[in-house]
Amino acid sequence: MTGYGAGFASSPNYKVTIELKSLNSKYLELVLKLPRVYIKYEHQIRNILTKGLKRGKVVVLLNVEVLSADKRTLMINRPLAKKYLEELTELGQWLNLDDKVNLPFLLQLPEIIPTEIEQEDPEEWDLVKEALSKAVVKLQETRAEEGKALEQDLSLRRANIQAELIEIKKLAPIRLDNVRSRVEQSLEDIRHKIGDLDQNRFEQELVFYLEKLDINEEVVRLQQHLDFFQEMQNQPKSNGKKLQFIAQEMGREINTIGSKANDASIQRRVVAMKDELEKIKEQVLNIV
User: Fold this and answer.
1) What's the whole-model pTM score?
2) In angstroms, rounded to a whole number, what is the distance separating the alpha carbons of residues 194 and 190?
3) In sequence order, what are the beta bridge partners of 22?
Protein backbone atom coordinates (compact mmCIF):
# COMPACT_ATOMS: atom_id res chain seq x y z
CA MET A 1 0.00 0.00 0.00
CA THR A 2 1.31 3.45 -0.85
CA GLY A 3 2.03 5.91 1.92
CA TYR A 4 4.57 8.23 3.47
CA GLY A 5 5.74 8.79 7.03
CA ALA A 6 8.51 10.87 8.60
CA GLY A 7 9.85 10.79 12.13
CA PHE A 8 12.15 13.16 13.99
CA ALA A 9 14.09 12.91 17.25
CA SER A 10 16.82 15.11 18.67
CA SER A 11 19.09 15.76 21.63
CA PRO A 12 21.90 18.25 22.31
CA ASN A 13 24.21 15.84 20.49
CA TYR A 14 22.16 14.47 17.56
CA LYS A 15 19.29 15.27 15.24
CA VAL A 16 17.77 12.18 13.59
CA THR A 17 15.37 12.17 10.61
CA ILE A 18 13.81 9.03 9.15
CA GLU A 19 11.52 8.92 6.11
CA LEU A 20 9.47 5.90 5.01
CA LYS A 21 8.04 5.69 1.50
CA SER A 22 5.73 2.76 0.79
CA LEU A 23 4.73 1.34 -2.60
CA ASN A 24 2.44 -1.54 -3.58
CA SER A 25 3.79 -5.06 -3.16
CA LYS A 26 2.37 -8.50 -2.38
CA TYR A 27 4.96 -8.97 0.37
CA LEU A 28 7.02 -6.82 2.74
CA GLU A 29 10.13 -5.62 0.93
CA LEU A 30 12.49 -3.28 2.78
CA VAL A 31 14.95 -1.07 0.92
CA LEU A 32 17.30 0.66 3.39
CA LYS A 33 19.21 3.67 2.12
CA LEU A 34 21.61 4.36 4.98
CA PRO A 35 24.84 6.36 5.15
CA ARG A 36 27.76 3.98 5.22
CA VAL A 37 28.57 4.76 8.85
CA TYR A 38 25.03 3.73 9.91
CA ILE A 39 24.91 0.32 8.26
CA LYS A 40 25.58 -0.96 11.80
CA TYR A 41 21.90 -0.24 12.54
CA GLU A 42 20.49 -2.07 9.51
CA HIS A 43 19.57 -5.32 11.28
CA GLN A 44 17.81 -3.57 14.18
CA ILE A 45 15.89 -1.28 11.79
CA ARG A 46 14.70 -4.27 9.74
CA ASN A 47 13.47 -6.03 12.88
CA ILE A 48 11.44 -3.01 13.99
CA LEU A 49 9.85 -2.52 10.56
CA THR A 50 9.05 -6.23 10.18
CA LYS A 51 7.08 -6.11 13.44
CA GLY A 52 5.25 -2.89 12.56
CA LEU A 53 4.46 -3.44 8.86
CA LYS A 54 3.04 -6.36 6.86
CA ARG A 55 3.06 -5.61 3.14
CA GLY A 56 4.50 -3.10 0.72
CA LYS A 57 7.83 -2.09 -0.73
CA VAL A 58 9.14 0.30 1.91
CA VAL A 59 12.08 2.60 1.21
CA VAL A 60 13.88 3.79 4.38
CA LEU A 61 15.91 7.01 4.38
CA LEU A 62 18.01 7.77 7.47
CA ASN A 63 19.82 11.02 8.17
CA VAL A 64 21.72 11.80 11.38
CA GLU A 65 23.09 15.28 12.02
CA VAL A 66 25.83 15.40 14.67
CA LEU A 67 25.43 18.55 16.76
CA SER A 68 28.28 17.99 19.21
CA ALA A 69 31.91 17.75 18.16
CA ASP A 70 32.55 15.50 21.15
CA LYS A 71 30.48 12.77 19.49
CA ARG A 72 32.75 12.53 16.46
CA THR A 73 36.43 12.15 17.27
CA LEU A 74 38.88 12.76 14.45
CA MET A 75 40.98 9.62 14.50
CA ILE A 76 44.25 10.11 12.60
CA ASN A 77 46.48 7.08 12.24
CA ARG A 78 49.71 8.82 13.30
CA PRO A 79 52.04 5.78 13.15
CA LEU A 80 50.87 5.02 9.63
CA ALA A 81 51.28 8.67 8.58
CA LYS A 82 54.83 8.65 9.94
CA LYS A 83 55.60 5.45 8.08
CA TYR A 84 54.19 6.90 4.84
CA LEU A 85 56.40 9.99 5.29
CA GLU A 86 59.56 7.96 5.89
CA GLU A 87 58.99 5.68 2.93
CA LEU A 88 58.03 8.45 0.53
CA THR A 89 60.95 10.65 1.60
CA GLU A 90 63.36 7.76 1.10
CA LEU A 91 61.80 7.03 -2.29
CA GLY A 92 62.21 10.67 -3.33
CA GLN A 93 65.89 10.64 -2.39
CA TRP A 94 66.43 7.41 -4.28
CA LEU A 95 64.83 8.92 -7.38
CA ASN A 96 66.71 12.21 -6.94
CA LEU A 97 63.50 14.18 -6.64
CA ASP A 98 63.34 17.57 -4.99
CA ASP A 99 59.60 17.38 -4.21
CA LYS A 100 58.76 17.08 -0.53
CA VAL A 101 55.78 15.27 0.94
CA ASN A 102 53.34 17.77 2.47
CA LEU A 103 50.53 17.30 5.00
CA PRO A 104 47.51 17.62 2.63
CA PHE A 105 48.95 14.84 0.49
CA LEU A 106 49.53 12.60 3.51
CA LEU A 107 45.95 13.06 4.74
CA GLN A 108 44.59 11.75 1.43
CA LEU A 109 46.47 8.47 1.65
CA PRO A 110 44.51 5.27 2.48
CA GLU A 111 43.63 4.61 6.13
CA ILE A 112 45.25 7.80 7.46
CA ILE A 113 41.78 9.05 8.52
CA PRO A 114 39.32 6.17 9.12
CA THR A 115 35.90 6.93 7.59
CA GLU A 116 33.79 4.63 9.78
CA ILE A 117 33.26 4.43 13.51
CA GLU A 118 32.39 0.88 14.49
CA GLN A 119 31.35 1.55 18.09
CA GLU A 120 27.65 2.30 18.60
CA ASP A 121 26.48 5.19 20.72
CA PRO A 122 23.43 4.19 22.86
CA GLU A 123 22.14 7.76 22.80
CA GLU A 124 22.28 7.86 19.01
CA TRP A 125 20.51 4.48 18.66
CA ASP A 126 17.75 5.51 21.08
CA LEU A 127 17.05 8.55 18.92
CA VAL A 128 17.03 6.40 15.77
CA LYS A 129 14.47 4.06 17.37
CA GLU A 130 12.32 6.99 18.48
CA ALA A 131 12.33 8.57 15.02
CA LEU A 132 11.67 5.22 13.37
CA SER A 133 8.66 4.52 15.61
CA LYS A 134 7.19 7.93 14.80
CA ALA A 135 7.73 7.38 11.08
CA VAL A 136 5.96 3.99 11.21
CA VAL A 137 2.96 5.57 12.97
CA LYS A 138 2.76 8.34 10.35
CA LEU A 139 3.05 5.80 7.54
CA GLN A 140 0.20 3.75 9.00
CA GLU A 141 -1.93 6.89 9.31
CA THR A 142 -1.48 7.79 5.63
CA ARG A 143 -2.22 4.18 4.68
CA ALA A 144 -5.42 4.31 6.74
CA GLU A 145 -6.54 7.47 4.94
CA GLU A 146 -5.91 5.85 1.59
CA GLY A 147 -7.70 2.73 2.82
CA LYS A 148 -10.97 4.63 3.26
CA ALA A 149 -10.96 5.71 -0.38
CA LEU A 150 -9.88 2.22 -1.38
CA GLU A 151 -12.81 0.65 0.47
CA GLN A 152 -15.28 2.87 -1.37
CA ASP A 153 -13.74 1.98 -4.72
CA LEU A 154 -13.81 -1.77 -4.02
CA SER A 155 -17.45 -1.55 -2.94
CA LEU A 156 -18.29 0.27 -6.18
CA ARG A 157 -16.47 -2.31 -8.35
CA ARG A 158 -18.14 -5.18 -6.52
CA ALA A 159 -21.57 -3.54 -6.91
CA ASN A 160 -20.95 -3.11 -10.64
CA ILE A 161 -20.16 -6.82 -11.02
CA GLN A 162 -23.25 -7.66 -8.96
CA ALA A 163 -25.41 -5.53 -11.26
CA GLU A 164 -24.05 -7.28 -14.36
CA LEU A 165 -24.60 -10.68 -12.74
CA ILE A 166 -28.25 -9.84 -12.03
CA GLU A 167 -28.75 -9.03 -15.71
CA ILE A 168 -27.06 -12.31 -16.69
CA LYS A 169 -29.45 -14.21 -14.39
CA LYS A 170 -32.34 -12.64 -16.29
CA LEU A 171 -30.82 -13.41 -19.70
CA ALA A 172 -29.75 -17.00 -18.98
CA PRO A 173 -33.21 -18.72 -19.33
CA ILE A 174 -34.02 -16.73 -22.46
CA ARG A 175 -30.64 -17.70 -23.90
CA LEU A 176 -31.27 -21.44 -23.39
CA ASP A 177 -34.67 -21.17 -25.03
CA ASN A 178 -33.09 -19.41 -27.99
CA VAL A 179 -30.37 -22.06 -28.24
CA ARG A 180 -32.96 -24.83 -28.13
CA SER A 181 -35.00 -23.14 -30.84
CA ARG A 182 -31.95 -22.74 -33.08
CA VAL A 183 -30.95 -26.37 -32.63
CA GLU A 184 -34.47 -27.61 -33.34
CA GLN A 185 -34.69 -25.46 -36.45
CA SER A 186 -31.35 -26.76 -37.67
CA LEU A 187 -32.43 -30.35 -37.13
CA GLU A 188 -35.73 -29.68 -38.87
CA ASP A 189 -33.77 -28.57 -41.91
CA ILE A 190 -31.75 -31.78 -41.70
CA ARG A 191 -34.94 -33.89 -41.55
CA HIS A 192 -36.01 -32.52 -44.90
CA LYS A 193 -32.72 -33.68 -46.37
CA ILE A 194 -32.11 -37.07 -44.75
CA GLY A 195 -35.50 -38.07 -43.39
CA ASP A 196 -36.80 -38.69 -39.87
CA LEU A 197 -34.48 -38.84 -36.87
CA ASP A 198 -34.72 -40.88 -33.70
CA GLN A 199 -36.72 -38.51 -31.47
CA ASN A 200 -35.44 -40.07 -28.21
CA ARG A 201 -31.85 -39.82 -29.33
CA PHE A 202 -32.47 -36.27 -30.45
CA GLU A 203 -33.86 -35.30 -27.03
CA GLN A 204 -30.91 -36.93 -25.25
CA GLU A 205 -28.37 -35.12 -27.39
CA LEU A 206 -30.22 -31.84 -27.00
CA VAL A 207 -30.33 -32.16 -23.21
CA PHE A 208 -26.63 -33.01 -23.16
CA TYR A 209 -25.82 -30.01 -25.35
CA LEU A 210 -27.91 -27.62 -23.24
CA GLU A 211 -26.29 -28.92 -20.03
CA LYS A 212 -22.87 -28.07 -21.43
CA LEU A 213 -24.09 -24.53 -22.05
CA ASP A 214 -25.82 -24.16 -18.69
CA ILE A 215 -24.17 -21.41 -16.60
CA ASN A 216 -26.35 -21.71 -13.50
CA GLU A 217 -23.62 -23.31 -11.35
CA GLU A 218 -21.10 -20.64 -12.32
CA VAL A 219 -23.62 -17.89 -11.60
CA VAL A 220 -24.34 -19.33 -8.15
CA ARG A 221 -20.63 -19.68 -7.30
CA LEU A 222 -19.87 -16.17 -8.51
CA GLN A 223 -22.66 -14.83 -6.29
CA GLN A 224 -21.16 -16.70 -3.33
CA HIS A 225 -17.71 -15.22 -4.07
CA LEU A 226 -19.20 -11.72 -4.25
CA ASP A 227 -20.93 -12.19 -0.89
CA PHE A 228 -17.76 -13.60 0.68
CA PHE A 229 -15.71 -10.73 -0.75
CA GLN A 230 -18.05 -8.21 0.87
CA GLU A 231 -17.93 -10.13 4.16
CA MET A 232 -14.12 -10.09 4.25
CA GLN A 233 -14.05 -6.43 3.21
CA ASN A 234 -16.35 -5.44 6.09
CA GLN A 235 -14.32 -7.17 8.77
CA PRO A 236 -12.26 -4.88 11.04
CA LYS A 237 -9.18 -7.05 10.55
CA SER A 238 -7.25 -6.52 7.33
CA ASN A 239 -7.74 -9.36 4.83
CA GLY A 240 -5.72 -8.29 1.82
CA LYS A 241 -4.49 -11.74 0.84
CA LYS A 242 -7.91 -13.34 1.32
CA LEU A 243 -9.51 -10.70 -0.90
CA GLN A 244 -6.83 -11.42 -3.49
CA PHE A 245 -7.67 -15.15 -3.46
CA ILE A 246 -11.42 -14.47 -3.68
CA ALA A 247 -10.84 -12.16 -6.66
CA GLN A 248 -8.96 -14.98 -8.41
CA GLU A 249 -11.90 -17.34 -7.86
CA MET A 250 -14.29 -14.71 -9.15
CA GLY A 251 -12.18 -14.46 -12.29
CA ARG A 252 -12.45 -18.21 -12.91
CA GLU A 253 -16.24 -18.17 -12.72
CA ILE A 254 -16.53 -15.08 -14.94
CA ASN A 255 -14.24 -16.67 -17.56
CA THR A 256 -16.29 -19.88 -17.54
CA ILE A 257 -19.52 -17.95 -17.95
CA GLY A 258 -17.97 -16.15 -20.91
CA SER A 259 -16.78 -19.37 -22.57
CA LYS A 260 -20.20 -21.02 -22.17
CA ALA A 261 -22.33 -17.97 -22.93
CA ASN A 262 -22.74 -18.30 -26.70
CA ASP A 263 -24.85 -15.16 -26.48
CA ALA A 264 -23.90 -11.62 -27.47
CA SER A 265 -25.83 -9.94 -24.65
CA ILE A 266 -24.25 -12.09 -21.97
CA GLN A 267 -20.81 -11.68 -23.52
CA ARG A 268 -21.11 -7.92 -23.18
CA ARG A 269 -21.95 -8.36 -19.49
CA VAL A 270 -18.97 -10.67 -19.06
CA VAL A 271 -16.62 -8.13 -20.63
CA ALA A 272 -17.91 -5.45 -18.26
CA MET A 273 -17.40 -7.77 -15.25
CA LYS A 274 -13.85 -8.58 -16.35
CA ASP A 275 -13.06 -4.89 -16.58
CA GLU A 276 -14.33 -4.27 -13.04
CA LEU A 277 -12.53 -7.34 -11.71
CA GLU A 278 -9.18 -6.20 -13.11
CA LYS A 279 -9.59 -2.94 -11.22
CA ILE A 280 -10.38 -4.91 -8.06
CA LYS A 281 -7.25 -7.03 -8.48
CA GLU A 282 -5.12 -3.90 -8.85
CA GLN A 283 -6.62 -2.31 -5.74
CA VAL A 284 -6.44 -5.45 -3.61
CA LEU A 285 -2.65 -5.30 -3.88
CA ASN A 286 -2.88 -2.08 -1.86
CA ILE A 287 -4.54 -3.82 1.09
CA VAL A 288 -2.31 -5.05 3.89
Assistant:
1) 0.58
2) 6
3) 3, 58
